[in-house]
């Protein structure tokens, strides 16, 4: 995003509408810190500038990835649809993505107000694969990695900053606790806020991952967001 200096009058109305604090007033004109800007387009979409001074420039690669993970209207190049994740975990009742014996896990890095850098994304992804996890192939983050086997982000993307990135994976149940203990160890090295999403098959009316998460040092907050039906037949689990 850029500001047309011929139109800007430096009123500052736009400042609180930037979710990452990239806009300020310098020399009586609006100023965008391009390092902080995640290309979410909020300043333009909010339509608060009385002079209509915001201009969406053509984004070059790799800066364009900021928009992919920050602007909900921009589709991912490898999924073809907008959004940070794959088909959500809460559709497991009809997709059957996570059968018995495995745990689906997602790490949501960044939020409005802070965003996330690629160093944090890489740290999570490499920790996952080094501890038995398998990264989701159809996730929008796939194109960021040199390889799903290593979880390393391609060098050309390492300096980019985004609003939020979701790293999705699946891990065998017996490897879930060791993985989460390692995630707990690296938590201080993550430069942004992050949450952990977990899904598994209930056993005897209980959620088996609750006790596992507690053992690994996390406080689970059960969330019943399963979208029953969705107009499709239920998945068959073994």
TrEMBL record:
Organism: bioreactor metagenome
PROSITE patterns: 4FE4S_FER_1, 4FE4S_FER_2
GO molecular function, one term: 4 iron, 4 sulfur cluster binding
Key words, A-Z: 4Fe-4S, Iron, Iron-sulfur, Metal-binding
InterPro entries the record matches: 4Fe4S_Fe-S-bd, 4Fe4S_Fe_S_CS, PSI_iron-sulfur_center
Domain spans labelled 4Fe-4S ferredoxin-type: 1-28, 31-59
Protein name: 4Fe-4S ferredoxin-type domain-containing protein
